[in-house]
Each structure stands twice: as C-alpha cells, then as structure tokens.
Amino acid sequence: MPGEYVVASVFYFEADGMTDKFVQSVAGMGAKNNTTKTIRGSGKNGKILRQNLPGQAEFNNVTVTVTYNGEEDLHKWYLACSQDGKARQWNENRKNFSVVGYSQDKSTEIIRYDFKGCFPESYTGPEFDITNNDPATEKIEVSIESYEIKAKKKDVK
C-alpha cells in the first residue's frame, strides 16, 4: 500500500526567522536544463554532425501565497531586498525557505521542499474586501538558486 496522499490543506511556510505561515498555494516549482545545440562539423558527403549537450540549469521563480496573520516579516524581507531610494541589499538578505507538507492530522512531516539562495522579486499584500468570506492572503514571488525535495518514506510492514 502506498503512503498517505498529500493534500494541499496542510502545508506551512518556514524561512530564516519566519514560521507558522499557513500556505494556501505554491506555484511555479520547476527547473529546466538549457540545452546547448551545436554543429560539430560535417562528415562524408556533407552530412552535418550535430550534438546536443546539457547546458546551465535554470530554476523557475516560485510564488507562495500564505494566509495573512498580521505579521510584517514577508513585506520587510521584500523591502530589505528591493526598496527604492536605498541601496538594494538583495544578496545580503537571501534566505533559504521551506514549504513543508504534514499528514492530515498535522503531526507528521510527509514532504519538504527546501529552496536555497532566495530573494523576493515581488510582494502582494492582503486585499480587504468585506464581501469576500476567504481569509486575507499575502503573496511573494521568489527567485531561487536551487531546490531539493525530501519525501518522507513510510515503513511498509
């Protein structure tokens, strides 16, 4: 029997100094190996010899939407990296962050996505709309250098 299905309702955001952020969505996770397509020369009878080689890896930006809890830490992180009129200190303020999925009873970690060398490219604050019954959210789009997926294996008896 396979492990427990991971449902989106039990994911949390964790970063250097930021915890207890309930994730509503994570979008854009992915990577691409940019291929170098070269012509190596020509062979007999003018046949072109081609060779495709793996190039540099490129990681997509990740957009994380969390339930707004009244804290200013995501916005402050964005400002530390991007504030106009001041020296931009995005490199000094890079953070590693994780999106962690828990079992449905919220007691056991099932999967972890660890993102490395990140800084925010954009921030969207909560919208306050009295006609909307959904919780207020904030969204941050983050540039990443790499990521790892760490799935927790269940013991099979």
Describe this structure in words.
The relative contact order is 0.24. It is elongated, with a radius of gyration of 21 Å. The protein is mainly beta and 157 residues long. It is built from one helix and nine strands, in the order E-E-E-E-E-H-E-E-E-E. The strands form two sheets. Strands 1-2-5-8-7-6 form a six-stranded antiparallel beta barrel. A two-stranded antiparallel ribbon has the order 3-4. Strand 6 and strand 7 form a beta hairpin. Helices cover 6% and strands 52% of the residues.
Overview in brief:
The protein is mainly beta. Helices cover 6% and strands 52% of the residues. It is elongated and about 75 Å long.
- The tally of helices reads 1
Task: Give the overall shape, derived from the CA principal axes.
Answer: elongated
Low-confidence stretches: none
What percent strand? over 45%
| Helix/strand structural class | mainly beta
Question: In angstroms, what is the radius of gyration?
Answer: 21 Å
Which descriptors would you attach to this protein?
1 helix, mainly beta, 157 residues
Question: Secondary-structure map with pairings?
Answer:
Layout: E1 11-15, E2 18-27, E3 31-42, E4 48-59, E5 62-67, H1 73-82, E6 95-102, E7 109-124, E8 137-143, E9 146-151
Antiparallel strand pairs: 1-2, 1-6, 2-5, 3-4, 5-8, 6-7, 7-8, 7-9
